[in-house]
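Let us walk through a complete example step by step. Step one is to write down the protein sequence. Step two is to encode the small molecule, NAP, as a SMILES string so that its atoms and bonds are unambiguous. Step three, shown after the inputs, is the structure prediction itself.
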Amino acid sequence: MKIIQSKHNIQLSQLGFGAMNLPLEDTNQTESILDTALDNGITYIDTADLYQKGQNEIAIGRFMRQRKNRHKITLLSKVGNEFNPLNDEVKWNPSKEYIMSAIKDSLSRLQTDYLDMYLLHGGMIEDNKDETIDAFETLKKEGLIRSYGISSIRPNVIDYYIKHSNIDVIMMQFNLFDNRPLDILPSLVNNNIKLLARGPLSKGVLTDKYATISNSKFNDGFLGFSKDEMISTIQTLENQFQLPIQTIAMLYQLIYSNGAIVCGASKLEQLNKNIEHYHSAVQFLTETNIDTCKNIFETHVKSIVYKEHLV
Ligand SMILES: NC(=O)c1ccc[n+]([C@@H]2O[C@H](COP(=O)([O-])OP(=O)(O)OC[C@H]3O[C@@H](n4cnc5c(N)ncnc54)[C@H](OP(=O)(O)O)[C@@H]3O)[C@@H](O)[C@H]2O)c1
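Step three: the predicted structure of the complex.
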């Protein structure tokens, strides 16, 4: 497994595990998924305080305590969505006061005394961004976090953080259908900020299950793609590359992204397939000219442009 090193020396396995959809109701399956991830060199685990209202962090904390493997994991969590477990209300809160208290709750749920990365889980240009940055810098000085970043697609927010903070990473949805980050990637590369690409399989449609998943999850299409366009793009790419779409989805990440692929799974068999296709894509790229691949992608995948929240 390739390791991506951030500018603040955080090591991320190129294939990360997005824990958001862990099947928490099935403890054995949850533990098998996490064990399998680590056994296959996936050391970057991505969670958030909000996922399953804190239960996701609790499950990962329990797993790390039982396995005594905290030191083997690059642990990322997120903050900014203040939730009330009693009534399910979520309120956006990027204030320093809230972040300084929310980290303590996350660390307690995760049964650890530091996070490798802490991300602002969203963000708007109207936020008091300097106050948020001050909170992250203070947590770094206190040793509670090693590094920080934001999860955002908004160009104006990203631009501000690039210019006024020490962010190490930016998380964005990035895949063949949501390729909006392609416009922002050159700026990330220039500033040595790593992309954390979430949704690489577009909720599973970029797998051999595309016929059923496009019906169940994308009947109304997605961004600029109708459901039929999604299916015909998948079939065209499979013909062009002579590869399964899931390998192509991983290949797309390896070619265009400078960071880690944050792939989720709710079943062990999904994780095993995701690992297998990641390795197939790595192997394919060693044998194939990258410009040939880029040419296929640029000819057959429609570009989606983000037109709001511009700098
Ligand atoms: N704003 C943010 O910061 C933000 C937002 C969203 C996600 N994230 C992070 O990014 C991670 C990944 O995001 P995501 O869950 O949207 O991305 P994803 O990896 O594209 O989708 C994961 C889902 O796709 C399906 N899937 C995965 N592997 C499959 C396979 N081999 N075959 C068929 N279906 C498969 C599963 O759906 P089913 O469970 O329905 O089977 C799984 O839950 C999350 O876990 C989370 O850590 C961050």
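Step four is interpretation. Residues 18-21, 46, 78, 121, 151, 171, 198-204, 207, 209, 262-266, 270, 273-274 surround NAP (CB under 6 Å).
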